[in-house]
Amino acid sequence: MTLIKGAVLYGEGDPVDILVEDGQVAEIGELKKKTGQDVIDAQGLVVLPGFVDLHTHLREPGREDTETVETGSAAAALGGYTAVFAMANTDPVADNPVVVEHVWRRGREVGLVDVHPIGAVTVGLKGERLAELGAMARSNASVRIFSDDGMCVADPLIMRRALEYSRGLDVLIAQHAEEPRLTVGAQAHEGETAARLGLAGWPAAAEESIVARDCLLAGHVGARLHVCHVSTAGTADVLRWAKARGTQVSAEVTPHHLLLDDDRLNTYDPVNKVNPPLRTSSDTKSLREALAEGVIDCVATDHAPHAPQDKDCEWSAARPGMLGLQTALSVVIETMVKPGLLDWRGVARVMSERPAEIAGLPDHGRPIAVGEPANLVLVDPKATWTVNGARLASLAGNTPYEGMELPGVIKATLLRGKVTARDGRAVR
Ligand SMILES: NC(=O)N[C@@H](CC(=O)O)C(=O)O
Ligand SMILES: [Zn+2]
Ligand SMILES: [Zn+2]
């Protein structure tokens, strides 16, 4: 039993107390402490539904030197997450029931966050043959999202077949939209900065053309489609158009594409190397607006831990990817709440409710109300913190926000009533 004293629901109205019992919200109102109740002093804190991340890389199996289900789960709990979806680009690839069941089982053993493995769309992420989507969907891991993330399902016929199967299985295909013929050797957003720095360009059209193609394919076969890490203003335009004509498409944006732009590349520090690449400041502005408007449905971290030897090297040899789980909320506050584009209700929508709906999770992203599962996060909206990669829970330290002072401190996370993070520590 836990009594949360004096929290403000969705940052609206007067503070209330929340009694959590048997994994659920048992009472809301002005409550007295009873014996045996753990009390969380939540004065001045905002309470939101626990966050859901549709796009996390946990690196297990294969690169346990950079992240494991255990360390990634701790980072997730500390970031306010109660459910994460783990991408399939592990080694071996999660393209079969054995690997997805391993990730799922480790998530349950660790117990800090609900870990849902994503299955690969094609065998070995090679884009040639469909993986056994049905076997993964029916496995104990009940896979509900499939993605070749890291790679694009580039062959339009394979993509069409994947969408057709996904409809029959009632699962979701999430596409990493990158036309590979347009990004051979690409190192940075194709534009002024890349030209000046002498880096091979990754044109916006390589993303936009695949998103347009896939929206047309999804519409044609009557399937749902999810677009990973939208990074350009043009992609937002394509999504706006597709949604207006009734295509069942959803999309995510990462915190780093909301905040950072390719100006950061001047130092050639590979901590800023990510796929899709950081775009222009005008793209970040359009992405913020598209998220506020609902054209982009949600925020997903694309948390991508990498070892020092894969990051602290020359630009072209470095792997793309950035940590994201523990900084996501703060970046959303900085880019969306502070400028007035989203209120706390809106934060709950883009970080919890919409991703839970997109993934079909029945017990996450729920209203904070009596009888609902107690998946909650308590946020101090006034406090700030300074990011230090070495102190984050991830095994890797590749955060682009090193040394930055960011708004919003997560005081506690509860998963089905159990405190999983409190005052900056994961609680197992
Ligand atoms: N985002 C990245 O830059 N890297 C991801 C792959 C991906 O999300 O495409 C990774 O696995 O490291
Ligand atoms: Zn990707
Ligand atoms: Zn990714």
Automatic annotation (TrEMBL):
Domain Dihydroorotase catalytic residue range list: 45-232
Binding residue positions for substrate: H57, L58, R59, N89, N275, H306, P320, G321
EC category name: hydrolase
Binding site for Zn(2+) 1: H55, H57, D149, D302
EC number: 3.5.2.3
Location of the active site: D302
Name under which the protein is recorded: Dihydroorotase
Source organism: Kibdelosporangium persicum
